[in-house]
Design goal:
Arc Repressor Mutant, subunit A; single chain; binds calcium ion; 23% strand; 224 residues; 4-stranded antiparallel beta sheet; 2 domains; Rossmann fold; alpha/beta
């Protein structure tokens, strides 16, 4: 999944980026509110982690701008401001969650997972299709209970296809959710991941069909 982190404390920003990348996400980072508004207008994200005290434009303004453009991307406010008034204001402006610094990284990661799940497929951390199961907490894929060895990027592709099983996902959508701003994404790379995944999941009674001109569709095999 693709995450934007808006934070002006460089050490914290760096630590958060590393942690989110380690969890398998594509991460973009910006250090002030104006840049945040700018990238949010041009890019697609699955989640935003937003500081409030920011140079140029504060986090409340970023949030107001985002919701004013009807963007429904989940937002977690992560801030040193702990007053009830600030919490209420943040949530009423459209934040989905509010955490105060100092914070626990495992708790932030769990809240990120919870919000990403709700954005995709409901509250269940386990997504299944045929004999294939994806545990979004451990980022583990199993086939009939046996661990399937996948690279981080293959897991990312599978996660998106599984969470939209039965629906067509375009190549552009896969690229949007899998790559950060700085990474070069190509349709050819996506084709390679799909090709590898097909081989790995066919034993699970799951197919990944290519819908010409539209994208890919994951579903249970018709005889499965
Ligand atoms: Ca700050």
């Amino acid at each position: 999944m693709r995450i934007l982190i808006v934070e002006d404390d460089e050490v914290l920003l760096d630590g958060l980026c590393q942690a989110m990348r380690h969890s398998g996400h594509a991460v973009d980072c910006v250090g002030n509110g104006k840049d945040a508004v700018h990238v949010l207008q041009g890019e697609v994200y699955d989640l935003v982690i937003l500081d409030l005290g920011l140079p140029k434009l504060d986090g409340f303004s970023v949030l107001r701008n985002l919701r004013g453009h009807n963007q429904t991307v989940p937002v977690i406010i992560l801030t040193a401001r702990e007053s009830v008034d600030d919490r209420v204001k943040g949530l009423d402006l459209g934040a989905d969650d509010y955490m105060t610094k100092p914070f626990s990284l495992p708790e932030l990661e769990a809240r990120v997972r919870a919000l990403l799940r709700r954005g995709q497929c409901g509250a269940n951390p386990l997504i299944t299709c045929g004999a294939l199961a994806y545990d979004s907490v451990g980022r583990r894929v199993t086939l009939n209970g046996e661990r399937l060895e996948l690279t981080s990027r293959e897991t990312g592709v599978l996660e998106i296809l599984l969470s939209r099983a039965g629906r067509v996902v375009s190549k552009d959508q896969l690229i949007e959710h899998l790559y950060s701003y700085a990474e070069e994404a190509t349709g050819n790379a996506i084709e390679v991941y799909i090709h590898r995944l097909r081989k790995k999941v066919e034993a699970a009674g799951v197919t990944i069909r290519t819908i010409r001109g539209l994208g890919y569709l994951m579903d249970k095999a018709s005889n499965g």
